[in-house]
Amino acid sequence: MTSNELNFFHTKIHLKVEAHPPDFNSRGLCVKRVGLFRGATTCLIENYCSYNPSLTNHIPTPIMTNNELESRGTFERVLSWSFHIKSEESWKSAIVSITNDGKLLAGSEVLIDELQRCNIQILFDKYCVLIERKVYIQGPKTDFIEFIKVLSSWQSLGREGFSSKWHPAMSITEQGKVEGNQLLVCRFKVFAPLPFKSKHIKIAGGPAVPMYPLKTPDATLQEDWFYVMGHLKSDGILNLLHEGDGSLLYSVDVSQLFTSEIIQIDHSMFQNSNTLFVGFIDELRRQQFPNEYPFLSKQRLVRESFLKEQDSKNITRLLIQFPLHIDLEDWFVTLKAFAKREHYYLQHNPDQKLRSSKHVTLEVTEAKFSPTALPSSDSNSEGPGLYAELSFWGATWCRTAIVKSRTNPFWKENFKLECPCSTESARILVKKCSFKNEAFSQNDVILGESRVDLTQSGKSTDKRLIIGSSNLEIGSLDTTLTVGEIRILPHNAYKIFESMLRSLPPKDLQEMVITLQSSSNDLETLSSILLDSFQSLGIETELFAALRETAMKPLDSMTRQNRVNAKTTSPNSLNTVFRGNSALTKCLEMYFLRVGHEYLEKVIGPFVQRISDKNIDCEVDPRAGGGDAVAKTNLGHLTDYVNELWELMYSTTNDLPRQIKDQLTFLRKDVENSVEPDDIKTPLNALSAFIFLRFMCPALLNPKLFFLAKEHQTGRTQRTLMLVAKILMMMANRGKFSEYKEPYMVGLNTFLEEHDQMVIDYFDKLTGRKMDFSERILDMSDVVSRLSVEVPPAILSELPTNPYLIDKYHSLVQLIHCLNETRSLKKSSSAKHISSEPQMLQIDDVDFGSQEFLSSLLESSSSDLYDTNLSSFLRQNVTFQDLLEQAAIVEVKSSKLCELFNKPELPSDFTAGGWSEFEREQFSSGIVDKKGHLGHINEKLKECRPLEDVLQKLLLQTSPSFDSLASTPTVTAKPEKRLNPITRLFRKKKT
């Protein structure tokens, strides 16, 4: 053994390569495979490299040669490898190779079977802590340099699976596509650290426990809610100004965030639907940057000036609460426009981008605890206050109401969330209140938790709760989970389908609705898809017209049958035609709630709160225990409540949104045309079935479900609201209570008779049959002018609509999927294939437009020119069958792209020139931090150097420098000589 062979042992550089982000087995243990390589220069795979200083004079300049570019990511050299770095005898010589499918071999032994997205770290210390398998390889320095170059290219390739193809896009400010005069200004409340230098900040008050705690080493940081003036500038900078003197308090660079880091917080967190989360989510970035996250440390993310105060305090998140929901909509859309967009694509074909979203619907029904699970020392006879939280990314995003129970808390609450596809699991925590059993607190005790798998679509129930770390089963949690992932093509891929949908004749639209409704097993989901798709296109009126026409057919049939049978009165079925569930009733119910929620907030919400606060007994049934005298008194209380609500409804007909009144007008006219001319009752009952049965009364019966109350109503309040809703429905139907069914309600018949004509007048005012001279008294936000921020169509297509925040293309993809399911059921044996020769468009199902005309059409940069060409290209009479064919074309392309995205990326996917360019880009863009982590990101990070620069400076270090690194430092040694060479490289020079 020569002195040189011994020398590298003391002065080595290691290269650590991890196969891909750690996987977790069923027990939650982190599993990694680690290999080490050394070179005379040396490298380590999952991994190390050692360095032989005797060859420093022969180190070539680390540039990409033609031979290296032609190798297409492969490597084959005779190197030394070992499982141990401490023993020279353990080293073995073998042919170490990287195959064209990404395997790392030592001879025939597979060291790593997938190098895509591997973690690479150049280690500069003699002893390293690694997990499991270690392999060391030694070889000449020239081979070491080439080995790093090849590995740096493999590191940037996506491994098997869709999520590994995730890539961030530049923000709109980096593209320079925002006009200078585009901005937003609003006064809102924020939850942030109190500025030290501003003495006149007024605390606004709000929830004491934020849903996402601020992660900062500053223990003296004090946070609270306070009002500011927000000013969003055209460069993506959000300035938070003092509302008194206009001085700058904080500055936020929105362009550093991803779109998934701007989140509308669920109403259950703050009892407010107008709150946004804006900030870095470390756990989410770790999922999206699995191999770069060690490289992008938390401190480095914070240092990138997300939130700056004049005293340079670093903050990573901000909570903003707006006064109006329209303000939230404006800011939510605009902030997302300035953030970095997120796409999935293959690097050899970056133009074929996909957008993906995961929608999670979780219903938490109840928990069942064993008798010994909860402590019996609780003095409250009803039991402790219990609630459940849904947590992921290290934060809580929604929670149930507090319910007092010992063994069986019942919540029945539904949550809907959207998260990136990389989110694989969540936790449901069941907690016990520690403060009066009625308020949330940081000190609340976790009784148990359940893990929820978000990778599989479908429903799941009876999740088991495991208490603490002792793995004791304390009960079960009944939940219903639905997870849906949608892959969305670029917006131009849906232009033809959109135009067809807009041009579909009424009869074909009716055929589509009937076909979808008859083939669907989930009417509510189908209705939601139809409403979102048509409303996002601005053609919801056409949808409702088709749905009404379909619903009128049985009404027409019953009317004709009555004529044949010579009946003078309508059968009872005429009055109940809209009481059941259909696509029309569900779509209008969702639509009324969407456009009329603010009206419910200002009419029903305060009314429910007054009943809850007063807690007056309104039980009118003497059998309930109060007797006739008490029941008579309570009848007066109940009548007062009903009269109060009715007067408020009657006087605010001009405040009810115009969209609701328009649909009621169309409905009344269609029903009148379907019944006998002298039938006045049926049209009015149709109106009451929507405005009362499906809009007002559900909000009264369950205000918590409609975000009108903080807690579920129980006891007297619940009973009073139920009686009020029952009386309102009787008023709407112009009926009377029966002595045989509910004799204790007969006393209200006089009240009902007195208001019969008012109810008819109410319907007449809503449907334009009578002039409405009522003043607008509710200060509704629909009269407020809305700001429109102009953004490029490609970016606008990825943003939710304003208003109502509907993801248009997400809805269209769902509609296309429903149409294809219908088509497959409808397809006869004579037409088995979807796209052999579509007669109308003749578009290739893979290339989506092989004809030259269609290709130029899809690539047109002008939307106006595009729409004109498209209109002339499509036939005037589009049919439902044409729409089905086009839906099949779009879905085939999407499914084939997804198949490609699920495969690992390989150098063979590139053209010869494409791979050469890719390899050069990866090597030139590689950067190394102080700890030797190698990554490829577009961020400008402090304390990082280009890979090329690091290799040149490190490998050209003289032997004494490396000898001093390995030797034991003495007291007399200078600090510079005790420094690691990489530390010396990054050390700043003193002026």
Automatic annotation (TrEMBL):
An annotated GO BP: signal transduction
Membrane spanning stretches: none
PROSITE patterns: C2, RAS_GTPASE_ACTIV_1, RAS_GTPASE_ACTIV_2
One Pfam family named in its UniProt record: RasGAP
Domain of life: Eukaryota
Ras-GAP domain: residues covered: 522-733
Domain C2, residue spans: 340-467
Sorted UniProt keywords: GTPase activation
Recorded GO MF terms: GTPase activator activity
Designated name of the protein: Ras-GAP domain-containing protein
Biological source species: Kuraishia capsulata CBS 1993
